[in-house]
Structure formats: structure tokens, C-alpha cells
Design a protein that fits this description.
Layout lengths: L2 E5 L8 H16 L3 E4 L5 H12 L4 E6 L2 H4 L8 E5 L2 H10 L4 E3 L4 H16 L6 E4 L6 H12 L11 E4 L2 H10 L7 H4 L8 H7 L9 E2 L1
Parallel strand pairs: 1-2, 1-5, 2-3, 3-4, 5-6, 6-7
Antiparallel strand pairs: 7-8
Helix pairs in contact: 1-2, 1-7
């Protein structure tokens, strides 16, 4: 694994333990020799993760839009810095430049990026691993929402098998490295293939623990 895209918050108003979690991920990436691909900002968890990776000698690749250069304060410390016109271009490059994805705590933009990556995996557009860092239970509601969709047959249980829900950045990298891609089977992932055996399908697939440390 040569590079990992990290999705996370650009907010500067977060509790300090979230900041430490982002730094731990940056250190973990650099220590494994894995390049960080991220949104290019210097503030919030984005900036903390990038600076931590660079401190340990890691390679940092920032992808940002012209509009967000000032708002997210584009970080000049990146080894490679790409400025694009639109958010659609930014998200596409963030997806394409990675061998795997890690989702740190974040807001609406992070949710959007996460679901775009997850839906692409569901469709078989990529076979890359995805890890959610459920720091301090931040993503418990997200995991519960996915489980709610599975329970009501809007989401297929196979989605649980392509997500790792963990507690720390180090665990996230371990999960990505341990991932073994399997051939994509649309009959297992896409809702239109769910039939009368869907309830049994759900029952056979264990749920993810709400507090992290498992798979969803």
C-alpha cells in the first residue's frame, strides 16, 4: 500500500482529543512509509494529520479547490499540492490517488466523501479498503444508521464486510493492510438483488459493535 486518502474535519473548534487522534494517524502513516493524500488544508484535523505525517518524514499530497484555498488555509508544507476548480474534481482525485481510505471524525463534507467512496465500493468501481476511526464513539450514530438500513432492507448486509470500524489511526492502517480484495458480486451488494431470503441473510451476518473495534 503506497498511499491512503484521509477524510476529516477542517474545524478548529474541536476538543483536543480529536486533534491527538488525527496526529496519531499521521504518525502511523509515516511510520509505515505510506503517503498521506488529503484535502490540502492547514487547519482542523486535516492540518494536524498532515503536519504529523511530515514530522515523521512522511510524504503528504494535498488536493484543494481554489475556493477553499483561503477558507481551509491551504498548507504549503505538502510535498505535492494540487489546486482544482471544483469539489467534484477534488473528490475524484482524492479517490483515485489512494490505495485505501480512512475516515476520521468530520462534518458534512466528510460524510459526503465517505458515502461516495462507500457507494463506489458497493458498485464495484473500486476494491479498496475503507476504515472508519470511531474516536470516542463519534461515529456510533453513523454505524447505527447503516445497521438501520440493513435491518429495513435498504442496504445489503455485505456492506459490513467492506468497512472496518476501529478506535485509532494505528488500528485503521492495520485494517487496511490486512484487507484482502475479493471479486465484486453485485448480487451481494446491490439492493435490487435482495429477495425473500434477505431476512436470513441479515441474520447470518454479525452486526458491528457500536463502540468501534470491529467491522461494519
Amino acid at each position: 500500500m503506497k498511499s491512503v486518502t484521509v477524510y476529516c474535519s477542517s474545524s478548529g473548534a474541536l476538543e483536543p482529543h480529536f486533534t491527538q487522534g488525527a496526529r496519531d494517524l499521521g504518525h502511523a502513516l509515516a511510520d509505515r512509509g505510506i503517503a498521506l493524500v488529503y484535502g490540502g488544508g492547514s487547519i482542523g484535523l486535516m492540518g494536524e494529520c498532515a503536519r504529523a505525517a511530515k514530522e515523521r518524514g512522511g510524504r503528504v499530497i494535498g488536493i484543494i479547490t481554489t475556493k477553499l484555498m483561503d477558507l481551509e488555509q491551504g498548507w504549503s508544507g505538502c510535498n505535492e499540492f494540487v489546486v482544482v476548480d471544483t469539489m467534484q474534481q477534488r473528490r475524484r482525485i482524492l479517490m483515485d490517488r489512494a490505495d485505501g481510505y480512512v475516515v476520521l471524525p468530520g462534518g458534512l463534507g466528510t460524510y459526503e466523501e465517505f458515502f461516495e467512496v462507500l457507494v463506489a465500493r458497493q458498485l464495484g468501481d473500486h476494491h479498496k479498503p475503507i476504515a472508519i476511526v470511531n474516536h470516542d464513539g463519534y461515529y456510533d450514530p453513523l454505524v447505527a444508521m447503516i445497521e438501520h438500513g440493513i435491518e429495513h432492507r435498504f442496504v445489503r448486509p455485505a456492506v459490513r464486510g467492506v468497512l472496518s470500524v476501529v478506535n485509532t489511526g494505528t488500528e485503521a492502517i492495520d485494517a487496511l493492510l490486512a484487507h484482502e480484495p475479493t471479486p465484486h458480486d453485485p448480487t451481494q451488494f446491490l439492493p435490487m438483488h435482495a429477495g425473500k431470503d434477505a431476512a436470513a441473510d441479515i441474520a447470518r451476518t454479525p452486526k458491528a459493535p457500536q463502540g468501534g473495534g470491529g467491522t461494519a
